[in-house]
Amino acid sequence: MVSTPDSPTVYHDSWFDRAFIWLFSRKIAGALGKRRWPKGYDGFVSLSKQIMQGRSAQQQQALVAVVLKSLVPAQALWLIRTLFSPTQLV
To answer: Sign of the C-alpha dihedral, residues 24, 28, 34, 37?
Structure first.
């Protein structure tokens, strides 16, 4: 990250960062019913702002929950529920 008072911050994302931003953006776009969205971090921020627009706090939370659940495969959720007792930590 490089920043001066006169210039915007420049990020140097790794391939892993870019892949996660793409995946997360894709899931958010799907939850919003969009087929196309701006790419990269700016697109992620744009989609995140769209989650807030015209929605109550509860609606925003519900939409984010849908996105987060879509990031974890159903088999992994089943495995976690099966192997671990339901505690606050789990």
So the answer is: negative
